[in-house]
């Protein structure tokens, strides 16, 4: 209890005019207790602190002083309706004793109920039942225990549980936790499979034996937990988080193997479902059968109807894979042979054609045409060259007739001075000048010895 609240209780007592400390258990038994001294003296103890905040190691409150204050504070609390799960239900005389445990967390309260209030539901009340109790808190001063004394109780009906699950389902769906886009595919051949299952049950055997029968090399990391009751949610949640943190685990399987609606309630718990949604490792839910669908099935990456179905999904069948491989090899080999035979037949057909048997026949027409063109070209060229030759000879004769060389052929000569000028009259040269005389067949050198007009 908070010390501040106890101080308020003490202040209320003082406001009512109580000059003495509250009565302890011995006082309530009929024996009066002298008031605490108000002043200190060598013969008297120091007075007790008035407030809890004023206590020290040197001036503590005795237990007999604190316990009545706690009892008085608890007695001021109002009755409350509280929901939980029944554990350790027992009857003694006209009372039922039970532990009311929270359905999500590891918290509990002790409750006593009169047998007459439990009688209407006693045939349906057992450990694991969900109930709502109207009770008043009670603090036992002798032992310091807190319990609740109930005066009314009723079972939480199936309809109410379904309504709670449907409301939670709507909230989680609105957050997108059930969307197919966020689900990840399972690995084809995981080397290590994480398994969350009951401490005792067939789910572990079904998953492990069927998986190893299909793929003997598969290894398991198994976390055995409580899969129903108040401990199921924290234990399953912790197991999922532990396996998700293991880098060797490639897929996580949560298996239970069916059960009643009440037995499967932990797998629709919000805390567990959110932990599964946050799991980065692919998660397989194998909780119920075809008609059972807790919320864990909706958030898991794959939903298996049974643990056996989960084993068949997480690992391939080595026999089927080997048979498939052999069949694929046979089909590939057959297809390759058919393709080669088809290509060979096509090649034989092409080679049997006349154009490929005697490829030169394809060039023969072109060769004939080319030979004709070459002959025509040669004849045309020869004719053109003959005409040009005749014309050139005629032109050459004309040029020769007009050329000075023709005059030289008749005995004439051309006289030139040393500077190359043609001498046309004697006055253009002087005695002893060097002259060049050009005749029809060459040149002569001469010197002027005399000139005459």
Explain this structure to me?
It is a single chain. By secondary structure, the chain is of the alpha/beta class. It folds into five domains: 3-76, no CATH class; 80-156, Nucleic acid-binding proteins (OB fold (Dihydrolipoamide Acetyltransferase, E2P), Beta Barrel); 186-316, Hypothetical protein af1403, domain 2 (Rossmann fold, 3-Layer(aba) Sandwich); 353-401; 406-447, no CATH class. The chain contains 14 helices and 13 strands. The strands form three sheets. A five-stranded mixed barrel has the order 1-2-3-5-4. The chain has a five-stranded parallel beta sheet with strand order 7-6-8-9-10, with helices on both faces. Strand 9, helix 9 (295-299) and strand 10 form a beta-alpha-beta unit. Helix 7 (232-245) runs parallel beside helix 8 (270-277). 18% of the residues are buried. Residues 1-41 have low confidence and may be disordered.
User: If you consult CATH, what is the topology of the largest domain?
Assistant: Rossmann fold
Element order, helices and strands? Answer: HHHEEEHEEHEHEHEHEHEHHHHHEEE
Q: Please indicate the count of domains.
A: 5
Taking strands numbered 1, 2, ... along the chain, how are they ordered across the largest sheet?
A: 1-2-3-5-4
